[in-house]
Amino acid sequence: MKILPRALLVPGLMTLVMLATLLGLGTWQVDRMLWKRDLLAAIAAAERAPPVPLGATPPRFARVRAEGVFHPATALYGAEVHTLAANPTGGARLLAVLRREGAAPVLVDRGWVPVSHPAAPPPPMPAEPATVEGYVRPPDTAGPFAPADDLANRRFFTLDPTTIGPALGIPDLAPFILVALGPPGTPDPARALPRPPNNHLSYAITWYGLAVALLVIFVLYARKVPRP
Q1: Is residue 47 part of a domain?
Q2: Positive/negative CA dihedral, 132, 51, 181, 33
Q3: Do the bridges between strand 64-84 and strand 87-100 make them parallel or antiparallel, or are there none, so unpaired?
Q4: How confident is the model at residue 119 (pLDDT cuts 50, 70, 90)?
Q5: With b meaning 16 or more CB within 10 Å and e meaning fewer, what string describes 164-185?
Q6: CA atoms of 204 and 142, how far apart (whole Å)
Q7: Residue 193 placed within a domain
Q8: Which residues pair with 90 in a beta bridge?
Q9: Which residue, 3, 35, 91, 173, could crosslink 161 as a Cys pair with Cβ 3.0–4.6 Å?
Q10: Which residue in 93, 107, 109, 100 sits closest to 53, CA to CA?
Q11: How does pLDDT run across 82-111, given as a tens digit for each residue?
């Protein structure tokens, strides 16, 4: 019984569909890689530029500056371990509220502070004018496995101004968080603007590699199909 060339029709069509899909995914990852490079370059430029005043609609990926007076009450967010004097030390992010003239008060992440066990409420902020330089981040949404917030002790595990504000007696916080930038100290603030990872090249190589492997497999298969 002879096998007609049409025996390769269905495998060939399937290979073409999968090949087009793999090449499309690889090309998409290349486009993402180029977009991410431009984004990282824009972040680096913003980091070198002077900070801009913090407005009602803060810019993305930019250094901003806010002036005001800190509300006395503070809170703690999250749980992080830092190494102090070669010893691992548990701590959290110190949160404070900056009251601004003519604008909504904003929740400020001032940086990491060590926390004793059991944790005591953080100390109050001094009532004097302050200027904060940093960047803006959106609020978090509590996940299904997030620890419950401790409202009584002002210890939070979801960074959400709508929850933290009322616990501090300020329900009208701006709908974002200002993350302070600065040198090491206590609190220990962030050092640089956040940068998303750019690993799309490895993904593109993976998709293109699978496309080549698929093509090789089909060629080897086709060679084994008897011709009439």
Answers
A1: no
A2: positive
A3: antiparallel
A4: low
A5: bbebbebeebbebbbbbbeeee
A6: 33
A7: no
A8: 81
A9: 173
A10: 100
A11: 888 778 888 899 999 999 988 999 999 999
Does the predicted TM-score (pTM) go above 0.70?
yes
Residue scoring higher pLDDT (60 or 157): 157
Distance CA 202, CA 26 (A): 10
Angle between helix axes 9-48 and 200-224 (nearest 10 degrees) is 170
Q: Of 213, 211, 221, whose CA–CA distance to 20 is shortest?
A: 211
Structure tokens at 4: 């007609």
User: How does pLDDT run across 153-167, given as a tens digit for each residue?
Assistant: 899 999 999 999 999
- Residue 91: Cβ within 10 Å count: 22
pLDDT at 4: 45
What is the end-to-end Cα distance of the chain in Å, rounded?
Answer: 9
HSE-up (13 A, CA, CB side) for residue 153: 14
Together in a domain, 29 and 89: no
Query: How far apart, in whole angstroms, are the C-alpha atoms of residue 118 and residue 120?
Result: 6
DSSP state of 190: B
